[in-house]
Amino acid sequence: DPWIDGGAYCGSWGQDYEIPAPQMQAIRNAEYHWFSHGHPDHLNIASLPKLTKGEFLLSNHYGNRIKRDLTAAGFRVRVLADRQWIRLSQAIRVYSIANQNQDSLLLVDINGRLVINQNDSPEFGEAFRVRQVAKHFKEVYMLQLHGWGGADMVNIFDPSGRRLT
How far is CA 164 from CA 86, 118, 150, 155, 157, in A? Predict the structure, then answer.
């Protein structure tokens, strides 16, 4: 979910940290950009013009609205088959799990190391499936937001606009 520029939720959310220039360039030059779902802190409209080199990967969400909108805007988009390994390169394959919340998880096999990107998605009963996949890997890394910190919904300002939280 490359939110790399601008605010979200009508400016009530901003980024806590500046992305270093080398990392920003790596994001912009990436072959693939995955979006877990359509919330503006994940699929950020201000960031899209900076992501022109890669193919957008989406989970197979009901209705395909995001695919239609991104394709109409001129982006290359691929919808990942649900619950199937998809090879992206000799070293990388991905396994997408879409859920009824129009959200998704992405499992990434990088040369035999598993990265589980749960992001802020509820697991909706998929924990067993994820564990079954993970047990076949020697190294497993879990990326999961727990609802506090940088993505918290607490945004308090004083009357002058100075941020209090």
Answer: 45, 30, 14, 8, 5
Query: Which phi and psi angles does 8 have, rounded to 5°?
Result: -140, 160
Q: Quote the CATH superfamily of domain 21-144.
A: Ribonuclease Z/Hydroxyacylglutathione hydrolase-like (3.60.15.10)
Query: pTM value?
Result: 0.79
pLDDT digits (tens, 9 = 90+) for 16-65: 788 899 998 998 899 998 888 666 566 667 777 788 788 999 999 888 88
For 59, residues 6+ apart whose C-beta sits below 8 A from its C-beta are 36, 37, 79, 80, 82, 96, 97, 98, 104, 106
Domain boundaries, the chain: 21-144
Between strands 104-110 and 77-79, the pairing is: unpaired
Question: Which run of H or of E encompasses 66?
Answer: helix 65-72
The candidate with the shortest Cα–Cα distance to 51, out of 106, 5, 120, 115, is 5
* Backbone angles phi and psi of 25, in degrees to 5: -65, -40
